[in-house]
Design goal:
- The structure is a single chain.
- The radius of gyration is 47 Å and the shape is elongated.
- It is α+β, with helices and mostly antiparallel strands.
- The N terminus and C terminus are likely disordered.
- The strands form nine sheets. Strands 1, 2, 3, 5, 6, 10, 12, 14 and 15 form a nine-stranded mixed sheet that branches. It has an eight-stranded mixed sheet with strand order 27-28-26-25-31-34-33-32, with helices on one face.
Amino acid sequence: MHKAFWLLAASFGAQAAHAADKPVIAPAPSWVKPLAVPPAPAKPDEAAVRILLSDQQISLEPGKRVTYSHSAVKVQTPQGLGVGNISLPWNPETDILTVHKLVIRRGDKAIDVLASGQTFTVARREQNMEIATLDGVLTANIQPEGLEVGDILETEFSVETSDPVLRGHVEQAGASWNMLPVQQAHIGVRWPSTMKVAVRATSALPALKPVKQGAFTTVDLALSNIEPLPVPAGAPLRYRVGRLVEISDFAGWADAAALEAPLYGKASAIPAKGPLRDELEKIKAASADPKARAEAALALVQQRVRYVALLMGVGGLTPADAETTWSRRYGDCKAKTAMLLGFLHELGVEADPVAVSTVYGDGMDQRLPMVALFNHVLVRAKVAGKTYWLDGTRTGDASLDRIETPSFGWGLPLLPTGATLVRIMPEPLAIPNEVVSIELDAHKGVSLPASAKASIILRGDGALGVSLGLANLAPDARDRALREYWRGRFDVLDPTNVTATYDPKTGEETLVLEGTAKMDWSKGRYETDGTSLGWRADFTRQPGPNTDAPFQVAYPYYSKLTERVLLPKGFTGGKTQTKDDVNQTVAGVAYVRTTRMADDVVTVEKSERSLTPEFPAKDAPAAQQALRDLADQAIYIYKPQGYLPTEAERDAILATTPTDVNGFLQRGAILASRGDKDGAVASFERAVALDPRSANALMARAGIREQRGDKAGAEQDLKAAQAAAPDDDRPTAALAEIALQAGRTQEAITSLTTVLAKNPGNLVARGVMARAKAAAGDQEGALADATTALAAGFQPVDLRLLRANIYASQGKTDLVAAEAATLEKLPRDDAYPLVAAARIYDNIGRRTDAMRALDQALAIKPEAYTYLNRSDIRDRTDFTGRRADLDASLKLNPKLVNTIIAKGNLETDEKHYAEAIALYGQAAALAPKDFSPLTRRGITYAAMGDAVRAEKEFAAARTLATHPMALNNMCWEKATAGVALDSALADCDAALAKLPTSGQILDSRAFVLLRLGRIDEAIADYDKAIAQTPGRAASLYGRGVAWARKGDKAKSDADIAAALKSSPKVREEFASYGVTPATAATVAAK
C-alpha cells in the first residue's frame, strides 16, 4: 500500500536539481495554487485507505524543473496504517527536496508532525546492489507518531531538479492515476511562454489545451472520483500506460539524440598508447576479418569488464571514458557501450550507440521525445551489410551470428543529427530455442516401469542462463536442481542419472536424463508427454477502454518436442482423438504435430513457433475456439482390447502374492497360459474362497475345470455363476458351449436362443450359436449368425474358421481363401489369426501360403503352438522339418503336452519306437487325466507287434475317455493308424451310444468299417455322416474309396471329386493313412 500511494504522490521522472544532502523544511513555492482537501465520504468503504487528494503542480524553466506534490489519504482500516511509512527519495547531486507540510487531521483537529519535533531520518540505501547498480539516491524517512484509523494524513513536498547534462532541456510526466481510486485529482504545469514545450495526454485523459497567462503558459486538469483504469486483458505493454501526461521541450527525437551523441564520441576514444591500446592491437593482429574482430572486441568488453551501473551525479547519462573503464575493470551499460564503440571504430567496423528501454519500448513511437524514457544503451554494428545488436552487459556472445535481435521494440540511435526511432524486433526464430527428446521403452510390458531417456537442448539466452545458474551450485545442489527440474517438467519421469553440459562454441546447454517412467495406463490408455497443443484460451475482456487492442504473443519462441514410446511386440495402439496431423497457425503461433505408428513404436513430433508479437482482437473469438479445440485433441496410446501381459509382466505378477479376487484371477490366468493347470486351479480356488459369489471367479474355475476334463465340475461352477449373477449372460453361454462340445447340440441351441432373446447384442453367444447351428447341419443359419457377429465388430478367429469350413464343405474354395486372407490382414497384435489362416490355407491345399502365414506369425512372436502347427502342416515325410519345429516348440514350452505327443508321433513314423514310448510317458505324467498319451502309446505298442501292452494302454485310456468325443478321438486315432480296428470299432460304438446322430462319430466308424472291409456298412455310415454335414471332405472321400472297393467307378469318381473340391488336401491325408482308391481292398484286408 505504501508503494502504491507514493506512486501517485510522486511524479514519474522526478530526478534532478542542485545539491542538498538533507530535506529542506520550507513553505510551498509562491507559484503553487493551493487546493483544499475534499471531505471524506461519511461512510467509508472496505478499502484500507482512501485517497482524497492527489495534486501535482510542475514549474518548468530552461534547465530546471520543480515538481510539487500534495496528497491527502484517509486511513480506513488497521492495514491502512502502513501509509504512515513515508519515504521521500532524491538525488543530492541534482535535486533539492523540500518538505512543506506533514499533518495528521483527526476530525477538526490538525496535528503538525514537523512542528511537534519529529524529524526525517536520511539514509543512503542502494536498493539495487543485487543487480550491481549504484544510484547515489538518498531517502528521507519518517513515521508520523500517533497515526490512527480514521485519520487523514496530508503531505506536501517538492523536488527541484537541475541536471547540467540536459543542457537546459526539461521534461516531465505525471497524472498517472491508474492504481487506486482518487476522490480529487489535479495536475497543473507552467512554463515560460518563450519556451517551446509539447504537452501530450493519453487517450484515457481529456485533451489538454495550453493557455497563455502573462509570461507563462499553463495546462491544467482536474478530475473527480477517478477509478482504477482497467487494462485490456492480454494487451501489449503500450496499452498499460493508462492515464499519463507528458511534457517535453525536445523538438524531436533527433534533438534528444543529439544531446547524448557527443558524450559517446568523447568517451569512446582509445588512447594512442597504454594498456587499452595494447589490447586493441592484439585484436587487430589476430585477424583481419571484421566479424572476427568484432567478436573479439565484444568478448573483451563482456568478459573482462564486469557490470556495475554508476548513476551517481552526472553518471545517469554520461558514460565513463574507455580508458577509465578499462583501468577500473568495471562499468555500466554506458561505459561498456563507449568502450566497445571505441574498439569497433578503430577496427574499421561501422557502429553507433542506440538508447533503448527495457520498460517502455513497446509504444515508444507514440510518446513525446524524452531522455528519461531510456534506461539502457547498446551498440548497433554493421558487418558485411548485416546489422548486429551488441550488448556489452551480456555474457557469452561468442558468435555474432548467434546473437538474437533483442525485443526492445524501439531504439534511438544517438547520432549528432537526423536520428529517428528505429524498430528493434527479432524475426521469428529459424531454429528452435528448445528441443526436447523423450524415449520411453515399455517393450517389456506397459504395467512395468519403462526405461526412460530424455534430453533438452536449450539455445540462446535461456541456455546461458541455465548454465550460469547451475555453475553457481555445489555438486549436490546442482544434482537436486536438475532432478527437480525434470520431475517438474515431466512428472512421469523418475531420474536415476542427470547431467548438464554447456558448449560455448555452439551456445547450447544440453540436459540429459536417464531413468524410469511409471506410465499411467489405468484408463486403458496413455497420454503422451508434453505433446498437447493449444490451451483453454480465454480472450474475453471486461468492458472498458481499448477492448479492441491486439493480444500480445510470447515472441519470439520456437520449441520442438519428439517422444518415442516403444511398446510390447505386436502392440496395437497409437489411436488418438485427433483425426489428422496438425498444421495450423492460431493467435500468432504455428502449431505442428505429427503422429506415426510403426513397428510397435509410437512417435509424436510437435513444434510451436510464434510468428508475430501480437494478433488482432477481431481474430480472438475464432482463435479462442481453435486453441481450445487443439487442447482437446490429446494424443492417447490405447491399450489393445484383450491386451495380454508380456512374459516380463507375468513374471512380475507371479513374483507377488495377490490379496484380492482380481489378483488371484490374473495370477490363475497366467499360470493357465503357461500350462500350469494345477497352479491355475489353486489361484482360482483362492479367488472363489475370497468371494464365493464372484461370477468372474466361478467362471474362471469352470474354464480350467473344463480344460482338465472335469465337465461336471465346470457345469456346477457355471450354474453357481448364473445364480450369483442372473443378469450376466456369460455363464449361460458357457454352459451352452459345454453342451455343444458334449454333442448336446439342441440343448446348446435352446440355451443360446434364450440368451439372444434377452440380449440380441451378445456377440459371444451369437458366435457360439453359429457353431451350434453348424453342428446341427444348419449351414445357412450358422453363416448368418457368424456374419452378424463379425459385422458388429466381434472378431474371434473361430468364426472365420467356421465360415471357412462351411464354405469348404460347399466347395467354395475362393470364399475359403478369402477368410484366410482376412485373418492375415487383422492387426498384428497377436499371431493366432495368422496360425488360423495357415490352417485354412492348408485345408484347401495351399501349403505354400500356409507356411508363409506361419512364418509371419513367428515373426510377430515365436510361440510354441505356432511351431507345433507348422510341424503338422509340413509334408509327413519332411521328418527333418517336423523335428526342427517340434524342438523349437519344446524349447519355448517344455511342458506343452500336445507338442510332446506330436514328437512321439514323429518318432513312431520314423519307427523310433523306444523314443516314442518315452515321450508318451512324459506326456502322460504331465496330463494324467488325458487319454491321448495312453492311446498313442497303445498304437505304438501295436505297431511294434505287442498287442498285450497295446490293449492295456487302450483300456487305461478308455477309463479316462468319458466324453463321447473323447471316445471318437480314440476310435479315429486307431483307425488312421490301422491298428486295433476291433477296439476302435468298440470306441466308436460307445461314442454313438451317447451321441447317435453325430456326423463326426459316424464318419470315424465308417472309416473303421472301411478298413475292416465291411464296405456296405461303411457306405451306410458315410451316408448318415454326409446327411448330417453335407460336403464333409473326409466322408465324401472315404465313401468314394468304398465305392471303388465295390467297383462302382462312377460313384467313386463323383464322391472323390466332390471331396477334392471341398478340400484338395484330403487325398494326401488318406494316403498318409495308407488308404487310396486303388489300395482300398488291400488295406481293408489288413
